Amino acid sequence: MQSFLAKYMTTSHMERRVRVRFAPSPTGALHIGGVRTALYNYLFARQHGGDMLLRIEDTDSTRFVPGAEEYILEALDWLSIGIDEGLRIKKSEIINHKSEIESIGSHGPYRQSERREIYHQYVKQLLDSGRAYIAFDTPEELEAKRAEIPNFQYDARTRLQMRNSLTMNAEEVRELLANGEKYVVRFKVEPNEDVHVHDLIRGEVVINSNILDDKVLYKSADDLPTYHLANIVDDHLMEISHVIRGEEWLPSAPLHVLLYRAFGWQDTMPEFAHLPLLLKPDGNGKLSKRDGDRLGFPVFPLEFHNQKDGTVSSGYRESGYLPEAVINFLALLGWHGSGDQEMYTMDELIKDFSLDRVSKSGAKFDYEKGKWFNHQYLQLRSNEELAEMFIPVLKEKLAAMNLPSFQGGEGGRLATIIGLVKDRVNFVPELWEQVNFFFAAPTEYDEKSLKKRWKEDSPRHMQELLAVLDTVSEVDWHKFYETTDDNGNTVTRWHLDDVVMPWIAEKEYGVGIVMNAFRICLVGAARGPHIWAITDILGKAETLKRVKTAIERINS
RNA sequence: GGUGCUAUCGUCUAGUGGCCUAGGACAACGGCCUCUCACGCCGUAAACCCCGGUUCGAGUCCGGGUAGCACUACCA
User: How far is the CA of A337 from the C1' of B18 (A)?
Assistant: First the structure.
């Protein structure tokens, strides 16, 4: 039975419900840094049993890129970053790359472009209370001012020299407005005040209001607010408890604090956490879209065809990355767990995540480590799953070689083959280089391998081997059994071992020289899985045929 | 230029005053395994930005310097 006090404490001193948001702009593909921000928000929300919202910040109509919104939602969906409220992909509606977007929740609309009327009232509130003013300076005038005065800033020192409602009388302002003159609403920042921002990752950050300019909050040209106003109003209205965003926002955090105060919302102002930036792998600076092209790896989760500028950006999904690998890799870029653990499932991340353990400094994007993570997760997938993922690649390769297409339904043969080689690849498409010889006999033989492994006696060895192998029955060809090696480990021993090895011993040939030559006949190079695993899959007829062909073709 | 943030192996990082002759992971290198290439396993090399101060004791706290980054739009 709960005491009355416990009850009292939980009701009247109840912690605010955790509500976080990811609020991207639909200006292009979702950058991998943005994905990490979304992930951290998601982990935080889940851990606290709170809500993860998705809001689209499309207040700059000029930068809108068609398809970007769908892209963002699909990327999050692919990575299993779940959205509880706002915009998201309607489940079970992803057919033929066509996905439907749904809006869920009672705090909508969740696109800022659809919230014009809401912002009007708050702009008016600020104007009425004298916390903001109307400015008529044209972009050209401002530009001229900046050219004229070095380090010009629109603020308490300069606003009285500008064309705004502070310097004009009410009649003039009314007239300009009536004439349809373009204007903006600027926030009136009071000078000389130390603004304190509490950051969950960085602690107390203090900035003097003198360095802040009178930010534009609203522009009449497109009847939309700017980021700063829309962001604060929406976060307030949507009851956001924690703002977890990139470090690039830290300098404007004081402005946001001032805005919350101007509205009288300081008591419900969200907590802030500014995440370290993702840096270029080489040199310094923020990781950018161009770095991906330059260094040859994706910086976007999904491939993106930009309809606005016609560019195509490669994506992790199309490069063969597994979503869980991307998540794990990203989670550890700027955050570490409570121990030395490297591999994390999403559930483990949710359990272990903490803003305390987010680093303060930027993290260089290490693509090599990403590959390693993918390798790890690839091994965890079943052969059947990998086969399923590999089939499109396989079909494409076979078509390119004018070979009969893969039909499937071959009794799990592909899965068996993949099981043989998966531990040597990092990505699904790489499987092709490991399995190609199962689908097509070698047409040429790797020169390096020949030089090292194909000796003068090899043709004679192979000729003799052919005779030895021919004695093995079709049934015995595929036989194998379990045995124990010198170290007590269980190993698979093939019947063919018992046929070929005694022959080699009797003739006093080297095992290495015979087997490697044999391998070259079958594979075309000195690589690949265990030789008897290969002959098992190839079958007797194909094996003998390949050896014959090799004897004829090599050295001729 | 101004303001802010940051600073441990090549990279991601552990480290919250003594457990640090600085730990883990990726990458590199070497070895083992082995018919090959890989995987795997074992091992090696590799770092506290600099200068002061506080303290019995500093990678850890403080100050200064330096460097890097971010921001400084009618972009977000």
Answer: 25
Q: A157-160 — which CB contacts under 8 Å span 24+ positions?
A: A157/A191, A159/A133, A159/A135, A159/A186, A159/A188, A159/A214
Over residues A371-394, the pLDDT tens digits come to 999 999 999 999 999 999 999 999
Residue A400 burial class via C-beta count within 10 angstroms: exposed 0-12, middle 13-18, buried 19 and up = exposed
Separation CA A551–CA A534 (nearest Å): 19
Q: Is A289 one of the annotated active-site residues of the chain? A: yes
Give the whole-angstrom CA distance, residue A473 versus residue A495. Answer: 11
A339 CB neighbour count, 10 Å cutoff: 7
pTM for the model stands at: 0.92
β-strands A242-246, A271-275: how paired?
parallel
For residue A463, the one-letter residue type is Q
Which of A145, A219, A286, A289 is labelled catalytic? Answer: A289
Q: In angstroms, how far is B6 C1' from A359 CA?
A: 10
Whole-angstrom Cα distance, residue A108 to residue A101? 14
ipTM (interface predicted TM):
0.95
Q: What percent of chain A has pLDDT over 90?
A: 79
Q: How many Cα atoms occupy the beta-carbon half-sphere of A460 within 13 Å?
A: 6
Gap from A22 CA to B47 C1', Å:
36
Contacts of A116 (CB under 8 A, 6+ apart): A223, A224
Is A226's CB less than 7 Å from nucleic acid strand B? yes
Under 8 Å between Cβ of A415 and A383: yes
State the nucleotide closest to A526 in CA–C1' terms.
B36
Q: Give the model confidence (pLDDT) of A350-361 as tens digits.
A: 999 999 999 999
Q: How far apart are CA A475 and CA A539, in angstroms?
A: 10
Beta strands in A126-280 (DSSP E): 132-135, 184-187, 194-199, 203-208, 216-219, 224-225, 242-246, 271-275, 278-279
A504 beta carbon to strand B: under 7 Å: no
Q: Scanning the structure block, which residue is given the tokens 């091994």? A: A379
Residue A65 has a CB neighbour count (10 Å cut-off) of 17
What amino acid is encoded at A277 in this protein?
L
* Three-state secondary-structure class, residue A447: helix
- CA A21 → CA A117, A250, A258, A358, A455, distances in Å? 22, 17, 21, 18, 67
Angstrom CA distances, A103 to A68, A83, A108, A281, A500, stand at 16, 10, 8, 37, 67
Distance from residue A120's CA to nucleotide B39's C1', rounded to whole Å: 63
pLDDT confidence of residue A487: 63
| pLDDT recorded at residue A1 | 35
> Six-digit token pair at A121?
């009232």
Apex A416 CA angle, A522 and A427, nearest 5? 90
In this predicted model, which residue has the larger pLDDT, A384 or A93? Answer: A384
Q: Find the nucleotide nearest A25 (Cα to C1′).
A: B76
